[in-house]
Automatic annotation (TrEMBL):
<dbReference type="GO" id="GO:0009083">
    <property type="term" value="P:branched-chain amino acid catabolic process"/>
</dbReference>
<dbReference type="InterPro" id="IPR033248">
    <property type="entry name" value="Transketolase_C"/>
</dbReference>
<dbReference type="GO" id="GO:0006091">
    <property type="term" value="P:generation of precursor metabolites and energy"/>
</dbReference>
<dbReference type="InterPro" id="IPR029061">
    <property type="entry name" value="THDP-binding"/>
</dbReference>
<dbReference type="Pfam" id="PF02780">
    <property type="entry name" value="Transketolase_C"/>
</dbReference>
<keyword id="KW-0560">Oxidoreductase</keyword>
<dbReference type="GO" id="GO:0003863">
    <property type="term" value="F:branched-chain 2-oxo acid dehydrogenase activity"/>
</dbReference>
<dbReference type="Pfam" id="PF02779">
    <property type="entry name" value="Transket_pyr"/>
</dbReference>
<feature type="domain" description="Transketolase-like pyrimidine-binding">
    <location>
        <begin position="64"/>
        <end position="204"/>
    </location>
</feature>
<protein>
    <recommendedName>
        <fullName>3-methyl-2-oxobutanoate dehydrogenase (2-methylpropanoyl-transferring)</fullName>
        <ecNumber>1.2.4.4</ecNumber>
    </recommendedName>
</protein>
<dbReference type="GO" id="GO:0007584">
    <property type="term" value="P:response to nutrient"/>
</dbReference>
<dbReference type="InterPro" id="IPR009014">
    <property type="entry name" value="Transketo_C/PFOR_II"/>
</dbReference>
<dbReference type="InterPro" id="IPR005475">
    <property type="entry name" value="Transketolase-like_Pyr-bd"/>
</dbReference>
Length: 351
């Protein structure tokens, strides 16, 4: 059973000499806005993009933002397999974020169509279509609206695992990742997939993306930057904040080397890659926007404690949203920022 729920989110033992890291504040501005034009996370040159995807010098690339990459992936899926259908609130008009722009015109109203304002109906319809062999893409306009559909997702989609597989939850960090992972979710995976799209990256994140269709694994983390002193693990938009914090620290502390891991798959997550990295560095900091209590980082911290205990030089640290429900005006104080990540990394290094 293959259903894709697209949801848009806001969002060795031994004696080791302790480093005496500097304690004075760095001269760099810490909490500056992410410069998406300069971040090393995005493929800003054709050479970098070709190297990343193993393309030859004649490999076709296109400059896309995340919004365009999502639309491009769904266009490929609809064109490749007649069993693929797309439905949700306003998708036939191009979607509230224009991710399905032009798809209804090309593929017709029987394959790309609007639904009533009923998240549980959208999810339930998608599950039924998938059970009959179709490949539905059920768009939930905002992640905040998905809660009425939890009965369908938890009690129906998830429990098909005992017959056909299991639910997967993934979140891309960039346009190229969105294209490759969404194609895999729709065409290559028999499990229901909850595909989370960070809406803040829709137009902010731009890079070179392979023009031809390609797929990426839905169960593998990716090491974005190798390091030896500490591992930072995150996913989605906070990766850009982590990268900014790491750059500031490595600029301040000579010789410091921090590894950055993109989890990509939130569930089931890639324990092997994470534990291998932490076993190498001996320190781990987990960063995500969801709350501290029962968040993704809680399970990861427990698994790291179980699998890497003898390698740890410091407790596993977490930088997360607070366990509160803030108003929109206070959101910037709730979710992680560069300064909180910077301070947590530094405390972990100095433990």
């Amino acid at each position: 059973m293959s259903t894709v729920f697209r949801s848009i989110v806001k969002t060795a033992l031994g004696v080791v000499a302790r480093r005496s890291y500097a304690t004075q504040a760095t001269s760099a501005r810490i909490n500056r806005k992410v410069d998406y034009e300069k971040t090393p996370i995005l493929y800003k040159t054709e050479k970098v993009a070709r190297d990343a995807y193993g393309l030859g010098s004649d490999g076709a690339l296109e400059w896309q933002n995340l919004n365009q990459a999502v639309c491009n992936a769904m266009h490929h899926a609809l064109k490749t397999d007649d069993n693929v259908i797309l439905f949700g609130e306003d998708v036939a008009f191009g979607g509230v974020f224009r991710c399905s722009k032009g798809l209804a015109d090309e593929f017709g109203g029987t394959r790309v169509f609007n639904t009533p304002l009923t998240e549980q109906g959208i999810a339930g319809f998608g599950i039924g279509c998938a059970a009959q062999g179709m490949k539905p893409i059920a768009e939930i306009q905002f992640a905040d609206y998905v809660f009425p559909a939890f009965d369908q997702i938890v009690n129906e989609a998830a429990k098909f695992r005992y017959r056909e597989g299991g639910v997967r939850v993934v979140m891309p960090r960039s346009p190229s990742q969105a294209k490759g992972m969404l194609i895999s979710s729709i065409l290559n995976c028999n499990d229901p997939v909850i595909f989370m799209e960070p809406k803040t990256l829709y137009r902010a994140a731009e890079e070179f993306v392979p023009r031809d269709a390609f797929s990426l694994p839905l169960d593998k983390a990716e090491i974005l930057k190798e390091g030896t002193d500490l591992t930072v693990i995150s996913y989605g938009q906070p990766l850009y904040l982590c990268s900014e914090a790491i750059q500031s620290l490595e600029k301040e502390i000579k010789g410091l080397s921090i590894e950055l891991v993109d989890l990509r798959a939130i569930y089931p997550w890639d324990r092997e890659t994470v534990l291998k990295s932490v076993n190498k560095t001996g320190r781990a900091v987990i960063v995500h926007e969801s709350m501290l209590n029962a968040g993704v980082g809680a399970e990861m911290a427990a698994s790291i404690q179980e699998g890497s205990f003898l390698h740890l030089e410091a407790p596993v640290a977490r930088v997360t949203g607070w366990d509160v429900h803030p108003g929109l005006v206070f959101e910037k104080y709730n979710i992680p920022d560069v300064l909180r990540i910077y301070d947590t990394i530094k405390r972990t290094l100095n433990y």
